[in-house]
Amino acid sequence: MISWIIWGNRSIKTNELRVTSKDLPKAFDNFSIAHISDLHNAEHGKNNKKLIDILQTENPNIIVITGDLIDSNHTNIEIALSFVRQAVKIAPCYFVTGNHEAWVGSQYEKLRTELENEGVTILRDEAIELDYRDEHIQLIGLNDPDFSDRDSLLSESILETKLSQINISNGFTMLLLHRPEHFNVYQKNNIDLVLSGHAHGGQFRLPFLGGIIAPNQGFFPKYDAGIYTENETTMIVSRGIGNSIIPIRINNRPEIVIVKLNCGK
User: Fold this and answer.
1) pTM (2 d.p.)
2) Are 125 and 142 contacting, i.e. CB atoms less than 8 angstroms apart?
3) β-bridge pairing 126-132 and 135-141
């Protein structure tokens, strides 16, 4: 049992998920996105060699990091930067904050500056055009709501306000943010694809039942890992890579999600 738990915490799984949309430009057919979330200062191999080796093998078009790159309980900015310095050599990197970035106070400003110096694009409540082969899709990134207010009862309205202030395209839109629990908000704003983390896969997973507990969702969370589609909005929730308050995972290997986009008819 001990060996199983150790292996399950040190062995990274690559999980490929495909998303098909009629609104996706033809140039983006088979476009590959490596989705990293909740590193929490974890190290898999020296200088996160295991993570980097996977990314090099997958050779994605872009890498997205959906928050909690660092951990407020044992913050080590250098671990995060070491990973990023290698990742940007593989593909363009896009980053949005998580609650742990909000919780480290002034240390986040140092992280933000260093990430930008390394060439990472940080999306802060804004939309940009992601260009590829003379066509584009809209890429939106939101700061974690804890930067505005740490009252969890306000997080949904904060995110709703942020999205209402963005001119969302009629074409294919992809949203990067940390929180999956407010899926209803993303649907209402006609987002095609949402990439998020935060739930840690429910930390402990039971066969057929899924995750046991997740931040801001409590026991048996609705959105703990994998792919969800409602009202033409698809959300992918990464199980993440590191741990925070609870130091171990059970039946819940760390993962890198590889998202493949496909044009629909």
Assistant:
1) 0.96
2) yes
3) antiparallel
